[in-house]
Write a structure and sequence with these properties.
mainly beta; Lipocalin; 4% helix
């Protein structure tokens, strides 16, 4: 997902309270970015998974709220469901088929704000070599200079969406109800402005 995921969500007006006259490029902070998902398991519970390797950039103009060049990439082999045997199954051809499709990407051109701190972004999610449009609900948590460390200007974002994995050709367990078709995706990220 040259998505890197989802950060495109920053098309949110509240960020305009901090000055930046020209469009700026932001990069996801890998140490403060988490993409996780839940999927139904035989109706008993929802299984949690997280991707540990995510990268991405986007361009955002805080004055005009224009968003462009969103590119996010997830390493599919970095999936962790907190159970070794299940991780092996999720990585094989029944699900992510990581040997054939090592990356999941998301790309978007623009997003639309609905309030000062929320909006939506629609882009192309590519999974298992198939591309489908996906819309993310985005919340801007904070836009300010980081208080310590790198002290760069940072956008803190929370994103959420849902996909049907069968639309990407991942049909294992759908027909017999062993594994749900609907997958809820959540993203928490801090995107740092590139100076």
């Amino acid at each position: 997902m040259r998505l890197t995921l989802i950060t495109t969500c920053i098309a949110i007006g509240g960020a305009a309270q901090t000055a930046a006259a020209d469009p700026s490029t932001y990069e996801l902070d890998p140490s403060h970015t988490a993409i996780y998902f839940t999927v139904d398991h035989i109706g008993y519970s929802k299984t949690l998974g997280i991707f540990g390797e995510v990268s991405g950039t986007f361009v955002y103009d805080m004055d005009t709220q224009e968003l462009s060049d969103v590119a996010v990439t997830i390493k599919s082999d970095s999936v962790n469901t907190f159970h070794e045997a299940r991780d092996g199954h999720v990585k094989n051809q029944d699900f992510l088929h990581v040997s054939e499709f090592p990356e999941i990407t998301f790309a978007a051109a623009n997003g639309s704000p609905s309030s000062e701190t929320s909006g939506q972004v629609t882009g192309d999610l590519t999974l298992l070599g198939q591309t489908q449009p996906v819309t993310l609900d985005v919340t801007l948590n904070k836009a300010a200079e980081y208080p310590f460390g790198h002290k760069r200007f940072v956008l803190g974002l929370s994103l959420e969406s849902s996909i049907k994995r069968s639309e990407f050709g991942m049909t294992y367990g759908v027909e017999n109800g062993l594994v749900g078709d609907d997958v809820t995706i959540r993203i928490e990220t801090e995107a740092m402005r590139i100076e």
